[in-house]
Amino acid sequence: MVTQYERGRSKEYRAMELLRTEGWVVARSAASHGPVDIFAAKLGTTLLVQVKSGKARVKAEEAKELVKWAEAFNADAEIWHFKGRGHLEKRRLRVRK
Questions:
Q1: Residue 85: closest CA among 32, 4, 14
Q2: Residue 32 in this model has a pLDDT that exceeds 70
Q3: 3-state DSSP of the chain
Q4: What value does the mean pLDDT take over residues 82-96?
Q5: Which of 87, 24, 97 is nearest to 53 (CA)?
Q6: 30, 94, 54, 19: CA torsion to nearest 10
Q7: What pTM did the predictor assign?
Q8: Which one of 33, 44, 80, 88 has the largest count of C-beta atoms within 10 Å of its C-beta?
Q9: pLDDT band with cut points at 50, 70 and 90 for residue 97
Q10: For the CA atoms of the chain, what is the radius of gyration?
Q11: Confidence of residue 95 (pLDDT cuts 50, 70, 90)
Q12: First and final CA of the chain: distance in angstroms?
């Protein structure tokens, strides 16, 4: 049986793969319970990503914390939600200034 952790980790690896194909340098915050699952950089731009899968939702406090981190790094912040059958929904929370 696949655990919730394993399911989430597999989506994080999928997100990293998608970013790499677009030319991003990526790192995963392994076993993180923090707001950032993936750190990515490309041509002077930093992107912080929170990955969700299935019916998981981002709480308002989690979103605020992700934006706080993005502001600290002058980075963009997005939530990537992998829904059923590989459908990916991206929600941008902050664009760097």
A1: 14
A2: no
A3: CCCHHHHHHHHHHHHHHHHHHCCCEEEECCCCCCCCCEEEEECCEEEEEEEEECCCCCCHHHHHHHHHHHHHHCCEEEEEEECHHHCEEEEEEECCC
A4: 85
A5: 87
A6: -60
A7: 0.89
A8: 80
A9: low
A10: 13
A11: confident
A12: 44
- Token pair, residue 4, equals 């919730």
* Separation between Cα atoms, residue 91 and residue 97, nearest integer Å: 18
- The 10 Å Cβ neighbour count of residue 52 is 19
Mean confidence (pLDDT) of the chain: 90
User: Is residue 17 predicted with pLDDT exceeding 80?
Assistant: yes
Residue type, 28: R
Q: What is the pLDDT of residues 35-45, one digit of tens each?
A: 999 999 999 99
